[in-house]
């Protein structure tokens, strides 16, 4: 069984590629987390978790959901993490998750995909995004090969920088950076509610047909990147930057 959490579509695409190759099912963690659904799941023996990288680890809302949800019959787990640059030492923390679930950790694989974190970085334009995805395809194929053969992933890079970012920087980043207070909406907003529907933590509500953010943000960037009117900004940091979500930016000409 494949579990997938995705902010702006990268992880969803990878999970679909894996599901098609393995003829397996995908459980949408966005929907489960949004619905606060932690009911037990009959998984079968092998579990594959596909997620983006948030501050050099898997998203906290995903690890929290895993901790609360019983996986019946699960024995082995593979972690697949996409990122704009690197996953740091995320594999160490994934091993800890596997141990707490009494699962055999089959390793962590990294896939470089287009950047979406426009609260800090620049997202690619469509042509560049397509090139990044094209370069990722052989990596996804290799991941699929390991999964088909029931093999562990090769150990990812683990240097001092990786250990620092996933270890010391991750909690500081969440405490200092991961907040919703900088989100604002302009006059172009149509009140369509796309941001409300996309938010996996129910942190946005419409007041007078305008989005208002609460304090539970996970910085998935779904609200700002999927806004059809491009009416949302993250303070001044997102101004003038292209929005990125996989479905449109990669394949719209």
How is the largest sheet built, in terms of strand order?
Answer: 2-1-4-6-7
What average pLDDT do the residues reach?
95
Shape: globular
Ranges where pLDDT stays below 50 over 5 or more residues in a row are none
CA radius of gyration is: 18 Å
Number of helices: 9
Element-by-element helix/strand order? EHEHEEHEEHEHHEHEEHEH
Beta-strand level of the residues, as a percent range? 15-25%
Helix content: 25-40%
Structural class: alpha/beta
Tell me the distance between the termini: 34 Å
Q: What can be said about the biggest beta sheet? A: 5 strands, parallel
Number-wise, the strands total: 11
What topology does this entry show?
Elements: E1 2-4, H1 10-22, E2 26-28, H2 29-34, E3 41-42, E4 46-52, H3 60-68, E5 71-72, E6 76-83, H4 90-100, E7 104-112, H5 126-148, H6 160-176, E8 183-185, H7 194-198, E9 204-207, E10 210-213, H8 222-226, E11 232-234, H9 246-249
Parallel strand pairs: 1-2, 1-4, 3-5, 4-6, 6-7
Antiparallel strand pairs: 8-11, 9-10
Helix pairs in contact: 1-5
